[in-house]
Amino acid sequence: MGAIAHPHRLRILVELHAGEMDVNGLQRFLGISHSSVSQNLAILRAHHLVRERRQGRHVYYSLSNPELAEWLLHGLKFLEGGLAHQEEMKIAVDHARRLWMTDSGG
C-alpha cells in the first residue's frame, strides 16, 4: 500500500499507536514542517488509515483501526529478513518495532 510506503507516514502511524495527537505533536516527533505533517495526514485520511476529532480549534488524529499497528509490526518483522543489506532501512524497522513493542507491552 503506497500510503504507508513513505517513512514519515509510517512514523505517523507509529506515533498514533500510542494515542491521538495533533499536528504540532506529530511535528515535534518527526522534526518536519507543519505543512509536511498535514500533507502526510491528508494521504493517510484519504486511505482511511487515520481519523480526526475536532475539539474547538484543535484537531486530533488517531488510528482508524488500532490493529493496523500490530499488522504493520508483523509485516516489518517479515521484511526485516530481506533488508540485511540495507542498513538504514533495517535501523528504521528496528526502531519502529521497539516503539510498538514498548507501547503494546510486548
Q: Please list the strands of the largest sheet in the order they lie side by side.
A: 1-3-2
Rg for CA atoms: 14 Å
Please tell me what the overall shape is: globular
User: What is the chain-wise order of helices and strands?
Assistant: HEHHEEHH
Class based on secondary structure composition and strand pairing = alpha+beta
Helix content: 55-70%
The name CATH uses for the topology of the largest domain is: Arc Repressor Mutant, subunit A
Strand segment tally: 3
Query: Can you tell me the residue ranges where pLDDT is under 50 for at least 5 consecutive residues?
Result: none
Q: On the 0-100 scale, what is the average pLDDT?
A: 82
- Total domain count: 2
CATH architecture of the largest domain: Orthogonal Bundle
Top-tier CATH class of the largest domain: Mainly Alpha
Main beta sheet? 3 strands, antiparallel
Summarize the structure.
The chain has 106 residues and is α+β, with helices and mostly antiparallel strands. It has helices at 7-17, 23-30, 34-46, 67-80, 87-103; strands spanning 21-22, 50-55, 58-63.
Protein architecture, described:
The chain has 106 residues and is an alpha+beta fold. The protein folds into two domains: 2-63, Winged helix-like DNA-binding domain superfamily/Winged helix DNA-binding domain (Arc Repressor Mutant, subunit A, Orthogonal Bundle); 67-103, no CATH class. 59% of the residues lie in helices and 13% in strands. It has five helices and three strands. It has helices spanning 7-17, 23-30, 34-46, 67-80, 87-103; strands spanning 21-22, 50-55, 58-63. It has a three-stranded antiparallel sheet. Strand 2 (50-55) and strand 3 form a beta hairpin. The chain starts with 6 loop residues before the first helix and ends with a helix. The relative contact order is 0.16. The mean pLDDT is 82.
